[in-house]
Amino acid sequence: MGWGELSSSPCNLCPRECGAGRKDGQTGYCLSDNRIFVARAALHMWEEPCISGEAGSGTVFFSGCNLRCVYCQNYQIAAGKKGRQVSVKELAEIFLMLQAQGAANINLVTPDHYIDQIVRAVLEAKDMGLLIPVVYNGSGYEKREVIRNLAEIVDIFLTDFKYMDGELAEKYSKAPDYPAVAKGALAEMVRIAGSAAFDEKGMMQKGIIVRHLLLPGHKKNAKEVIRYLYETYQDKIYISIMNQYTPFVKTGADSGFKELRRKVTRREYESVTDYAIDLGVRNAFIQEGDTARESFVPEFDLNFHV
């Protein structure tokens, strides 16, 4: 399946297949039409060490989201309320400016609903001299055939795997099919990216990092995710176990989901990381200290720091 079919109108680009006429100006479930909106473009120091390094990852945060979890840490842009419109050419130029600033890579954050335009922008930037790796930083809720079409432009997949529990996925993300969809998407990522490769500075050049954000009170789901990832892929992937859940105001944590109104405890997090170690996981990233602070979320000020 090619991009012409995937980005057709009515839109069937994501697993929701909402059928919006995005090319005609209608917004889909992702709250986006066919115009590209970017909320932030800048060097970002807060990704995994092999992604940010000392130079920083060249992150481009796209507005809108097809998942919109109730606990979203980037709710300002996920709800489509922040963003500046850019053309495909301008997006390509942003990639090149980030490279000129010394970015370790180009990091596409929540890109799936703009992927047709992003592919064109990356190819255009490569024609103009883009050499650094391209990172696809998504929610895991992507069609397998969409991932398949990224083989020519994506080097690293930095993907979420949020749920093994469909009921939990329905409760927090209105996506009961999330576990099945994420499994299929990840399998395609592994097929495309293969084994991880690093440069002499320890920076990832290709490979897969799968993130799981531990939610308060949901150790069981976290352990099931980690077990699936390790038993299925062993050391072919890196697993990033995150404790940075922050109960922000204006997210689901303040909208009736009482269990989300607190941070993850140290005991909860250690229980999950100890489980991963006992299981045999070695290729992993573990967070230390109090990362559940609003300061870890970038300022979506619409000023592109390029």
Automatic annotation (TrEMBL):
SUPFAM superfamilies: Radical SAM enzymes. Keywords: Iron, Iron-sulfur, Metal-binding, S-adenosyl-L-methionine. Transmembrane segments: none annotated. Residues 60-178 form the Radical SAM core domain. [4Fe-4S] cluster binds at residues 65, 69, 72. One of its GO terms (molecular function) is metal ion binding. It holds the Pfam family Radical_SAM. Signal peptide: none annotated. This is Radical SAM protein. It comes from Parablautia intestinalis.
